[in-house]
Design brief:
The protein is α/β, with parallel strands linked by helices and 739 residues long. It has 33 helices and 13 strands. It folds into 4 domains: 259 residues, 3-Layer(aba) Sandwich (Rossmann fold), CATH 3.40.50.300; 114 residues, no CATH class; 123 residues, no CATH class; 214 residues, no CATH class. A hairpin with a 2-residue loop joins β6 and β7. It is elongated and about 145 Å long.
């Protein structure tokens, strides 16, 4: 990712933007200053779309054909996963990579190996149970629900059933298909009041009949007898000449043949099930089975009438079925249980290590707690589960001196907006640190992440971004409309290529260009002006902060002279370059030997000469502060010229000692309330020019945010007012009035 080529057309208000970001030679961080409304958020949204595989478009003009290209220096599309957009604030954002910071590779490997062995045996059992039950999926869920537990308890349930499975007695239900009975339609039918009553009636009659049987009883029914027969047969009992004695109708009867024993059981069973009263109840139940799905159940029930006695309590019958299936597949069940028990000791030791060991996740918490100034601190909970299982890690919050943790929702209610935004930063740090650990080469698009933070946290963010910039796999484009933040980032996130990746977004006609700043205006543009006074634009612009310096040091004489350059005064047209040279030698001691060219030229002429050159060039440069300052001075001088001419009151003019433009405008509006067009232009002069002219080294951001186009248009509008009023020269009258 040495270079990234970006082409954007008709996306989120950006009509046309093309730029190549060069991250070679240590330039891992690029920063763009973009005044509000130029391109900042749109640029970030386009990259966010790209990272998520979403098309970008123009929301206002959706019919325009949009174009978006983000390629590397090999002309290959950038991998969307390698782009991450950090928005100013996104309340719902949670990093989905947090768990990677909790992984201790060796512990996770051991943990996974244990569970892999368990899962192999578990899968074998589940496949067999699918065949036995007729269920295609959700075997684990069905067993857990049958024994009243949640899905995470599947293996614990199987372990708890061990004594029942090992019991020699058999439940002869392994041939019953679970899904034939336990589906929504059948269960709803069996749970209706009439059916339940008839089933109970059937059971009572069945128990009455079985107690009258020749050798079967309630405590030794045909299920028990069938189990005995099966065990004797499977163990070759009759084949070696053994026999059993049965109590049949009170008389002992010797049985020497397994087939005779089986026939005896079958006859006793049929005698009971074919009883007329029992069959009447059964047929009455059968007649109530109507729809197709229930008719399938009826057919199944007809072939397995013996289960009717179990249908009075479906929850118990479910459990009997599962135990029957597991008994019938005891070898597979035992293998799973052996592997599960064997893994428990190992897992216990691993969990203990995970609980006590330090993780990268905790390092993120430490970064946050150490760097950011908020009234709460963070801790980690469910640590061992998060380290080893697929369970999302979670945070404990501790408010100020309170020892107990506090619920996140309550915390958010008591925090300020800025403090809530800081919690968002925590998730951003999780994302960044996760990508660092995974070695994911990433381009971060940072959209005014520090906006609205106090200075302590703003600088903490900058320091963290500096650490990010020093990582070999990370590249950053920082977007901001805050010039102070822009300047600070460039000062602190620096290297051998300082300022080489500094841009200002400039809107020209239908396209946006990113103008490289190189070494200008970053730490102190005013110093650049003072060192380049041979440039007429910088010479005029320097008057603004020179005047402030004169005011600060109490040099009233030079302050008044410099004021005459910025307002129409007695000396405005008389001051020359050589006069300014002497003033500067007095104010700026390091300029003691300065000799300026064209010393006899009037500063008044130079101001309008430079202003006219700016207008004729019709170019826009956010970075060119001096042009904006000169244009602002020229606008205000012409506006005052117009108002003085229109007011035409020497006595009033003579009373103005300060705030000249504002007082002239107030008087103009009072005398000419109907001149709405002129008032509108002059209001713009009052709004747009003062901050541009009263400039110092700590506050020149307002002028950056004003478009050259707006200043140029305002200059033309004021000229139009002068032309309409036929104003050509009033300086003599001004001078006379102020004497």
């Amino acid at each position: 990712m040495d270079k990234i080529k970006v082409e954007i057309k008709n996306c989120y208000g950006i009509n046309n933007l093309e730029n190549e970001f060069d991250f070679t030679a240590g330039k891992s961080t690029q920063i763009i200053y973009a005044p509000n409304g130029v391109m900042k958020t749109s640029f970030a949204n386009i990259f966010d779309d790209y990272s998520k595989g979403t098309e970008s478009k123009d929301l206002i003009f959706p019919m325009k054909e949009s174009h978006r290209v983000i390629k590397n220096n090999a002309e290959e599309d950038i991998n969307p996963e390698s782009i991450f957009v950090i928005k100013p604030y996104e309340k719902s954002f949670k990093s989905n990579r947090m768990s990677t910071l909790l992984v201790k590779e060796e512990l996770r490997r051991q943990y996974d190996e244990i569970h892999e062995k368990i899962d192999i045996e578990k899968d074998k059992l589940i496949e067999i149970l699918k065949s036995s039950t007729g269920l295609r999926s959700n075997i684990e869920e069905a067993i857990c629900n049958s024994f009243g537990s949640n899905l995470n308890s599947f293996l614990q349930i199987l372990s708890q059933l061990e004594d029942w499975i090992k019991d020699d007695s058999e439940l002869p239900y392994s041939h019953i298909i679970y899904n034939k009975i336990f589906n929504d339609k059948v269960v709803a039918f069996l749970e209706t009041g009439d059916i339940k009553s008839q089933i109970i009636e059937y059971i009572k009659k069945y128990e009455e009949l079985i107690n009258k049987s020749s050798f079967l009883k309630k405590s030794f029914n045909h299920y028990n007898a069938t189990t005995v027969h099966k065990n004797l047969k499977d163990n070759g009992f009759f084949q070696v000449g053994h026999s059993i004695n049965l109590n049949v109708d009170g008389e002992k009867q010797e049985i020497t043949d397994q087939n005779k024993f089986l026939k005896l059981i079958k006859d006793a069973k049929e005698e009971i099930l074919n009883d007329d009263t029992l069959q009447t109840i059964f047929n009455d139940i059968d007649r109530k089975i109507s729809n197709a799905q229930l008719r399938e159940f009826r057919d199944y029930l007809f072939d397995h009438q013996e289960i009717l006695t179990e249908l009075a309590d479906l929850s118990i019958f479910k459990q009997k079925l599962w135990i029957s299936y597991l008994k019938d597949n005891k070898d597979v069940y035992d293998n799973l249980l052996i592997e599960y028990k064997k893994g428990q000791d190992g897992i216990k030791k691993i969990l203990e290590k995970a609980k006590n060991g330090e993780t990268d996740w905790e390092n993120v918490i430490e970064i946050f707690n150490r760097r950011f100034f908020v009234p709460y601190r963070l801790g980690i909970k469910n640590k061992e589960d998060s380290v080893l299982k697929d369970i999302a890690p979670s945070v404990d919050y501790y408010y100020k001196d309170r020892s107990e943790n506090i619920d996140e929702d309550l915390l958010l209610k008591v925090l300020s907006q800025g403090e809530r935004r800081t919690l968002y930063l925590l998730n951003i740090i999780f994302e960044i640190e996760s990508r660092k650990k995974q070695g994911i080469k990433t381009l971060f698009i940072v959209d005014d992440i520090a906006d609205s933070f106090d200075y302590k946290n703003k600088y903490a963010i900058i320091e963290y971004l500096k650490e990010v910039s020093e990582h070999d796999d990370f590249f950053t484009i920082i977007l901001t409309h805050n010039f102070d933040f822009f300047r600070t980032v460039q000062e602190r996130i620096s290297g051998s290529s300082k300022y080489a990746g500094s841009f200002m977004a400039v809107k020209e006609n239908d396209y946006i260009k990113l103008e490289n700043l190189k070494y200008r205006y970053i730490s102190n543009p005013l110093k650049d002006w003072k060192q380049n006074l041979s440039d007429n634009a910088k010479l005029v612009a320097s008057v603004t902060f020179a005047r402030n310096i004169a005011e600060y040091i109490g040099d009233d004489e030079n302050f008044n002279k410099l004021t005459s350059i910025l307002h129409l005064k007695e000396a405005t047209k008389a001051l020359k370059i050589k006069d300014l040279q002497e003033i500067y030698k007095s104010i700026f001691r390091d300029l003691g030997d300065i000799e300026l060219d064209n010393s006899d030229r009037r500063l008044y002429d130079i101001i309008f000469e430079v202003a006219d050159q700016i207008i004729s060039s019709n170019s826009e440069s956010v970075a060119n502060l001096e042009n904006k300052v000169v244009l602002s001075i020229a606008i205000r001088l012409n506006a005052e010229l117009y108002m003085i001419n229109m007011i035409n009151d020497n006595q009033f003019i003579s009373t103005i000692n300060k705030n000249q433009t504002g007082k002239l405008f107030g008087e103009f509006r009072k005398r000419f309330p109907g001149e709405l067009s002129s008032i509108g232009v002059l209001e713009k002069v009052n709004i747009m020019t003062p901050e541009n002219i009263h400039l110092n080294s700590f506050m020149f951001e307002p002028i950056l945010d004003i478009s050259d186009h707006h200043l140029q248009q305002l200059y033309k509008d004021v000229l139009r007012l002068l032309e309409e009023a036929k104003v050509t020269e009033v300086l003599k009258e001004v001078a006379s009035a102020q004497q």
